[in-house]
Amino acid sequence: MPTANAALVDRENLRTGVDAALGRHVARLREEAERISPEAGALVDAVERMVAGGKRLRAAFCYWSWRAHGGTPGDGREQGVLRAGAALELFQAAALFHDDVMDDSSTRRGLPTAHRVFADEHAGSGRRGEPRRFGDGVAILLGDLALIASDEEMTRALAGLPVSVAQAAHSVFSSMRTEVTVGQYLDLVAQTMPWGTADDDERRAREVVRAKSARYSVEHPIVLGAALAGADDAAVAGCRAVGLPLGEAFQLRDDLLGVLGDPATTGKPAGDDLREGKRTVLVARALAHATAAGDDAAVALLQRGVGDPDLDAAGVAELTDLLVRTGAVADVEQIIEELWAQTLTQIEARDWPEPARGTLVELAHAAVRRTA
C-alpha cells in the first residue's frame, strides 16, 4: 500500500490494536522459546522482524468488514476482531517464510530473506554442514512457528463469542489456510510444466492467482470480518462477490510490480519473478501475442528467459521490453480495470453503512493502485 494511504489502516486505532496483539504474542513466544533454550531467541527475532513489516491490509479488510456488518468500536467483540487481524498477519508471515524458500528469494521488503540471513550466519561462523540447507531449514521452522502462532491468536480471538459465530469464523480461517497451501502447490507445479497452449497457460495462471493470493489477500479477510459480526449467508455471499475480483486485481497488480516496479519501493530486485519462472497472466499473454504474431524469436526469448535463475540486468530489461511491446502489460492493466469495475459494482449493491463503506472503497483503491 502506498505510504500516502498508510493512514487508512490507522483509522479507529486499527494498526495500534493489531500491533499490540502481535507484540503480546511475540513476547509470549520469546518467553516460551528462551525457556527451552537461550539460543532460540534468534528464531523469535526473525518472526518479530517479519510481522513488523506488514501493511496490515488483510487485518484492515477484516476489521472494516466487521464494521460494515454491524460491529461497533469499543464493544466487547472489538478486541477479538483485532486479534483475528493479528492472526491473519501471522499467517501471512508463515506463508512468506515458506514462499521465500520455495522461490529462493533474496530480499523481502528491502531486507535479506530469513533463509539467506541464517545461511550467511552459518557460513560466517565456521559451522559444519551446508549453509544453504541450514538457512532453508530454519526458514521452514520459522514458517511453522508463525503458523502455530496464527492458530493460537485466532483461538484467543474466538474465545467468548457465541458458538455459531465462532464456528463460522473458524471455518473461514481454516478454508483460507488450506486454499493457500494448495495454491502454493499449484504455483510450484505451474513452474515445472512445459509451455502449453495460450488458453491453458492463462487458465492455469488465473487458477493460481485465485487460490494462492486473491482469496487469502482480500476475499477471506472480508468474509472473516462479516462472520465475526454474525452476518447471514446472503451477506457473506455479498462479501465474496466483492472480495474475489478485488483480490484478483490485487495480485495482477503485484505481478506487474514484480516486473515493472521500482525496487526501492517494492523491496524486491527487478526481475525476480522472471528469474523464478512465475507463470503469470502477464507472461501467458505475452507468449500468446508473440505466438499469434508468428514472432518465433519473441516466443523463444520468453520460453528461454522466464525461469532462468542467471538472468542478468540486460536480460531482465529485454524481457520487460518484450512484455510491454507485445501488449501484455496493457492487457493486464485492462483486466485490472475490469475487475476494479466489478468490485465497485458489487460494493454499490451492498447496504454497508458509513464510515465502513467509504473506508472499504479506499482500501480497495489502495490495493489496486499501489506501487509496492
TrEMBL record:
One of its GO terms (molecular function) is prenyltransferase activity. Belongs to the FPP/GGPP synthase family. It holds the Pfam family polyprenyl_synt. Its cofactor is Mg(2+). GO terms for biological process: isoprenoid biosynthetic process. It comes from Cellulomonas flavigena (strain ATCC 482 / DSM 20109 / BCRC 11376 / JCM 18109 / NBRC 3775 / NCIMB 8073 / NRS 134). InterPro entries: Isoprenoid_synthase_dom_sf, Polyprenyl_synt, Polyprenyl_synt_CS. Keywords: Magnesium, Metal-binding, Transferase. The keyword Magnesium applies. It comes from the Bacteria. SUPFAM superfamilies: Terpenoid synthases. This is Polyprenyl synthetase.
